[in-house]
């Protein structure tokens, strides 16, 4: 039965998975591979490089709030071509530019098209295409993230060794234009998938709370969106901080970066396994019941930094991050359409994605300032743990209120 689902929906699942995979070139883990060469060529300090990167990321988040709405209004193939065009221009700016301003514009394009719009389009389409088995579909599509994290860094390092860091971005542009874009367009030629399930008709989509499709303005005025934000923003903030400051951890804890890197296969494996399991669970019980518990692995990861010991402590951290990230990427892909419907899901998802991008931009900067003030990341870890635990407690209350709202509406409809 499971294999029939994948076989019947292979073109759409593959297209959206390639979009999440294609976001890798705009993610921090990939861009950071060029950081050494960029700092050397432009004479930037660590702080100067970080400031440019943060500014570019914040600018992309502000644009994404509006550009994300295009996923509701523009044909997927046309929008995909526009996104890749921005991606290619950004690669050219980073790889060929000779000024800091051009570098900043290139980073802005990489973050907007890569981290933002490309995966946003893939997950928005998935939310519309699937209803009855949305959890399983989203869990499959988001595998593009760990796939990119697992296979691209060693390839990129090898390319840099041969061509230099600028040459890497020429290769990325060629991959985007000659391989990724044609492959996705070929898959999308199968046509737009119509959702199947009792709650969605071919033209009605899948409604959310109160059996309707919410407008973005209504979402921003509703208490639920803001109540969810402290929990939703914890994984991107904390996860980015822990990865961004790996060198600092190695220096302050006396760890070997080489030994720390050996834990990444386990991190990727746990992220994939947890994501797939989460999709199956959501299809059975819905996304709301996972809200009070999805941050607990991240709390364990943060608490792990308080433990004394060698690189095995980092392994505990990676296990917690991998499990929590596996849950959250699948959970968010199903939560927003469940709460607010699919009619304007592109614009609504853009609100949350923009907030998460801001979190990834602010996290390294804020914690870096605290480190400069004398508090190591391990000493900041109790605050991260407390954040996760308090947010989980709040989510228990939020879940009960949302479930009660669903029940009240169901009773009113029966009357």
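^ structure tokens above, recovered residues below v
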């Amino acid at each position: 039965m499971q294999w029939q689902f994948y076989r019947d929906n292979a073109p759409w699942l593959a297209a959206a998975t390639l979009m999440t995979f294609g976001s890798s070139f705009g993610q921090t883990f990939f861009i950071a591979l060029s950081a050494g060469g960029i700092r050397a060529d432009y004479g930037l300090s660590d702080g100067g490089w970080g400031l440019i990167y943060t500014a570019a990321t914040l600018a992309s988040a502000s644009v994404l709030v509006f550009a994300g709405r295009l996923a509701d209004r523009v044909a997927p193939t046309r929008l995909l071509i526009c996104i890749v065009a921005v991606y290619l221009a950004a690669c050219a700016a980073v790889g060929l530019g000779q000024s800091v301003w051009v570098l900043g514009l290139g980073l802005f394009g990489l973050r907007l098209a890569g981290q933002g719009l490309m995966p946003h389009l893939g997950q928005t389409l998935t939310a519309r295409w699937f209803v009855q088995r949305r959890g399983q579909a989203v869990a499959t599509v988001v595998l593009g993230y760990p796939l990119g994290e697992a296979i691209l860094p060693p390839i990129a390092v090898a390319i840099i060794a041969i061509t230099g860091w600028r040459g890497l971005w020429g290769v990325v542009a060629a991959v985007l234009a000659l391989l990724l874009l044609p492959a996705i367009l070929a898959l999308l030629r199968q046509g737009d998938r119509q959702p199947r399930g009792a709650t969605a008709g071919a033209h009605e989509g899948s409604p959310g709370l109160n059996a309707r499709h919410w407008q973005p303005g209504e979402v921003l005025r509703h208490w639920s969106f803001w109540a969810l934000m402290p929990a939703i923003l914890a994984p991107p903030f904390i996860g980015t901080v822990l990865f961004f400051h790996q060198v600092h951890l190695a220096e302050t804890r006396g760890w070997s970066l080489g030994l720390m890197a050996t834990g990444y296969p386990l991190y990727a494996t746990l992220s994939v396994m947890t994501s797939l399991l989460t999709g199956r669970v959501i299809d059975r019980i819905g996304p709301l019941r996972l809200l009070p518990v999805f941050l607990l692995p991240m709390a364990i990861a943060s608490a792990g930094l308080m433990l004394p010991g060698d690189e095995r402590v980092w392994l505990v951290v990676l296990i917690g991050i991998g499990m929590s990230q596996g849950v959250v990427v699948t959970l968010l892909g199903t939560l927003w359409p469940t709460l607010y419907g699919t009619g304007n899901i592109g614009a609504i998802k853009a609100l949350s994605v923009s907030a998460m991008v801001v979190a990834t931009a602010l996290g390294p900067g804020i914690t870096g300032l605290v480190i400069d003030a004398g508090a190591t990341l391990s000493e900041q870890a109790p605050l991260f743990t407390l954040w996760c635990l308090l947010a989980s407690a709040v989510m228990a209350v939020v879940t009960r209120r949302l479930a009660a709202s669903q029940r009240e509406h169901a009773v009113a409809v029966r009357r």
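The longest helix spans residues 377-414.
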